[in-house]
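tokens incoming
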């Protein structure tokens, strides 16, 4: 499989990109080089290799959901540019 200049034109149109002829030629060459490199994988012997979703075995990588005390409101508001009644004060968005 190879990428043609027409393919690059089509994708550029879908992405609403205005590419020059030089860029189209460059991207066509680069995409074909990527495909040629990826084709090398077809030559690998994968007999007996179990398909996986990750290269390394994965276990639950999520931490335990443990409650912890929050910061006191006075300390939280120290860095606030403006606050009122224990809450952050921001400019009005709606009138």
């Amino acid at each position: 499989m190879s990428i043609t200049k027409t393919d690059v034109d089509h994708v550029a149109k879908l992405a609403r990109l205005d590419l020059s002829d030089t860029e189209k030629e460059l991207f066509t060459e680069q995409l074909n080089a990527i495909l040629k490199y990826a084709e090398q994988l077809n030559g690998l012997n994968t007999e007996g290799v179990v398909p996986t979703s990750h290269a390394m075995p994965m276990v639950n990588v999520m931490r335990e959901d443990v409650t912890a005390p929050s910061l006191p409101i006075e300390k939280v508001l120290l860095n606030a540019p403006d606050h009122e009644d224990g809450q952050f004060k921001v400019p009005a968005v709606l009138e």
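note: Helices lie at 5-14, 21-38, 73-76.
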